[in-house]
Structures are given as C-alpha cells and as structure tokens.
Design a protein that fits this description.
It is built from 17 helices and 14 strands. By secondary structure, it is an alpha/beta fold. The chain has three domains: 148 residues, Rossmann fold, CATH 3.40.50.1980; 184 residues, Rossmann fold, CATH 3.40.50.1980; 37 residues, no CATH class. The longest helix is centred in the first third of the chain and has 19 residues. The model has no long low-confidence stretch (mean pLDDT 96).
Length: 437
C-alpha cells in the first residue's frame, strides 16, 4: 500500500494545506435533518423511541434500557481473569494521573480589603457515551469514568449501543462498573445523545455529554449543545488520526504499526508520516504490507490508507512545523532525542515520545486520557481532564475600607460606560457607612 508522497519544500502555502487536508467527513447530505428528527422523536416519545430504534438500527429486542444487576453479573462472569486484571491496571494508572490534576482553591487579596477566590464544583449530572459498533471500547468507559469520579459528579449516566442479543458489551459494563458507574443504558447513536440531553422516563437529563462517536453521535452532540435546553459537549471531534515524525534511525516496523493502529479505527481515519528520509517511507510501506497480511481489520485499514500521506521535510525542525500546522490528535516522535523536539510542539492532542512509546499505551493504560480533539481541533482544544467535569466559580469579598479604595475606579469606569446604577450601587453603600451613628 503506497502513501501519497509530498515534498514539503516544493509546495506553496495552499498546496501544503491541501497535502495535510483530512479526508472529507462521509456524511449523508440529509444527516443533520435525520439527526434532528431522531432528537425530536426522543423528546416526544422518550423510551418508546429508544426501544424502537434499538430494534430498527441495532437489531436488538429490548424490554428495558437499563443494564440490570443480573446482566452486570453475567458480564463479570463472561470476562476472563486477564481481562479483569487489565481493566484494573488501566483504571489505576488513569486514576493516578488524573488525581494529580486536581488543584486547590485559589485565594488572592488583589488590594487591601479585597479578596478574590476561585473554587471548583463538580457538574451535577454528566452523560458518558461509549461506542460499541465494530469495535467496543471499554477503554473509553475508563477514560470517562475515572475523571468524572475524581471530579465528584453525583450523577453519571453511561449509554452504549446494545448488541443484537439485547445485552451491552460485557467489557464495557465491567469497565464502567469498576469506575463506580451504575446507571448504564443500552442506547446508541444520536438517540443516546438526545436521551441524555433531554431526559426520558428511564434516563436522567445531564448537563454535559462526553465521549467519542460516529458522525451521527457527533452531529447530535453539536445539535443539543446549540440548544440552551440541551446539554453541552466535551469537544468537537472527527475521525481518529495520527502523525508520526520519524528520523532515519527509527524502526520502520514500529512506525508501520503505529500508522496501522490508527487506520484500523475506521475507513475515514487519517495517518500521516513526516520524515527527512524519503527512502524510509518505502521501508515503512513494505512493513505495513507485511503486517496487513495478518490483521483481521485489513479491509478497514486499506480504506483508510488510501488517503494516507508521507511528507518529506528538510530536517526535524521542519517536521515539527508540519506537525503544528496539522494539529494531530496523536503525535508520535520516533526520533533519537524526542524530548528536545517535543519542546517545540504547540498543537497536538497527545504526544508520544521515543521508540518505546506506541500510541496504544495512551489509548489504554499509560494514564493519560484518550478522549482527544481530532480533525484539527487540537489547535484550540485540549484532551479530556478532570477539569472538564467541573465548573469554576469565582468569589469576592470586600470590606468597607476595601470598597472605599476601589470606589474611585468603579465610579470612573461606570461613568465611561454610562452605567449609572453601577456607580450608585457603590455610592449608596459609602453614604450609608458615613451616616451610620
């Protein structure tokens, strides 16, 4: 499988943008309208719509949406011991890293008698969406369940698509429950987002929805986030992607599998290789072809590789320029001194340093979060953290002497803005203090 080859120095600015352009999202022209119809149906008929769509879209005959204790028990038994152990190790590492993200309250006396504070409070109710189509993602249940628990969110609702047998994926159920999530529902797609955003008889309405998904899920999250009565979203997202920067000493086998591991997510995944060594590209392509022979998702990978690209740069400094322009979800630095190079990275969701750090460890168990901005949104958004499950509030307390000190500034600025009541709210207090016996 050949990657499209681009010589960076020979391209002008428009051509460079074109070379790094992601594949167009494979959306039906009427997808937005159909998503809005699903949302309206869920708002109108609630659980009945969810059960109907589970039958029509997932082939599942459901009598109840909630994962019962009996089903959860069967899920526990269905998973082998090594699966339970892997889930526990991943949770422990993710918890360790995310617990370190908690920050103490901030208190600053900005002027004599004027104290300003900032405190964090958990979101009251959050929705966690875990995909489970061609590749169920128990790791996503961990990435959402752990930080939401650390943040202290009192209500956590998890939705995941049902299998044709009417059950949720056992690994997703086990991972979610290991993170303390008990409200697990067998609902997928746009209908799950609508249910969490607006609530049904079974599913509690939430304030914010987290988690990746397909085009239907992404469109639904966007729609409900634009409705004041809906629910906020965690971040914009598109298909999975990786950019690998490799020097001539990199192991072509490692690079090939790093590229293939992202390509296997879906046919619209995007993989980019950036290197100063054109001969290295051919070695990587040969290793990819060899590895493909034994990969069960070969058809999906090959579809993704049709829009893969290899960019030839003059040196590693230029490679980082390319990476910053692309703003990848995952950036892998397969170079001799990766940490030195990482110092100049400014736009990436998550960075993987050195030959022994495959992207896979970040997906599962290194401790960082794998819910990351994709499709170029890393230019403005960060990966998921504990703070995303909280809201920050500021407090201020002013003494009388502090108010006297601030009064001239408030009165002047209120005068500039023509807001007389703002000024009067200050002067009335000073007058009351001056006339007090």
């Amino acid at each position: 499988m050949r990657m499209r080859l681009c010589l960076w120095s020979s391209l002008d600015a428009p051509a460079r943008r074109a070379a790094l352009r992601r594949p167009a999202l494979g959306l039906n022209q009427d997808l937005d309208e159909r998503v809005r119809t699903i949302i309206a149906d869920v708002r109108r008929d609630g659980d009945a719509t969810l059960i109907r769509l589970a039958r029509e879209l997932d082939g599942a005959q459901l009598t109840a949406l909630r994962v019962s204790e009996d089903e959860a028990g069967l899920a526990e038994v269905a998973l082998p011991a090594e699966a339970h152990a892997a889930i526990e190790i991943a949770i422990a590492n993710v918890r360790r890293f995310h617990e370190a993200q908690s920050t103490p309250p901030l208190r600053v006396e900005t002027a004599p008698g004027v104290v300003c504070e900032r405190i964090s409070k958990p979101l009251d109710a959050v929705g966690l969406y875990v995909p489970a189509g061609t590749a169920p993602l128990p790791s996503t249940a961990i990435m959402l369940g752990v930080p939401s628990a650390i943040a202290g969110c009192p209500v956590r609702v998890l939705c995941t698509p049902p299998r044709p047998d009417g059950r949720a994926d056992p690994a997703v159920v086990v991972a979610a429950r290991a993170c303390g999530v008990r409200d697990i529902f067998k609902v997928g797609g746009a209908q799950a987002i609508a249910a969490m955003a607006y609530g049904t008889a079974s599913i509690t309405k939430v304030a914010k929805i987290f988690g990746p998904g397909n085009a239907w899920v992404t469109a639904a999250k966007t729609v409900v986030a634009g409705d004041p009565g809906g629910a906020a979203l965690d971040m914009p997202a598109g298909p999975s992607e990786v950019l690998v920067v490799a020097d001539r000493l990199a192991d072509a086998r490692f690079v090939a599998l790093d590229l293939l591991s992202q390509a296997e997510h879906g046919p619209d995944s995007h993989v980019v290789l950036v290197t100063p060594d054109e001969a290295f590209v051919a070695r990587v392509e040969a290793e990819m072809e060899t590895a493909l022979q034994s990969l069960p998702r070969r058809a999906i990978i090959e579809a993704a590789l049709r829009h893969s690209v290899a960019v030839i740069v003059s040196d590693l400094s230029e490679a980082i320029t390319v990476a910053n322009e692309y703003a990848p979800e995952h950036l892998i630095l397969q170079v001799a001194e990766p940490r030195n190079l990482a110092a100049n990275v400014s736009t990436a969701g998550s960075v993987f340093l050195g030959r022994w750090t495959p992207e896979s460890v970040g997906d599962y168990c290194s401790g960082t979060n794998h819910v990351l901005p994709t499709y170029g949104y890393a230019r403005a958004y960060s990966g998921l953290s504990v703070a995303d499950f909280q809201r920050r509030m500021t407090l201020q307390e002013v003494t009388l002497s502090g108010l006297r000190g601030l009064a001239p500034t408030v009165l002047t600025l209120a005068g500039l803005e023509g807001l007389d009541a703002h000024a009067r709210a200050v002067t009335i207090r000073l007058e009351a203090a001056d006339t007090k016996p």
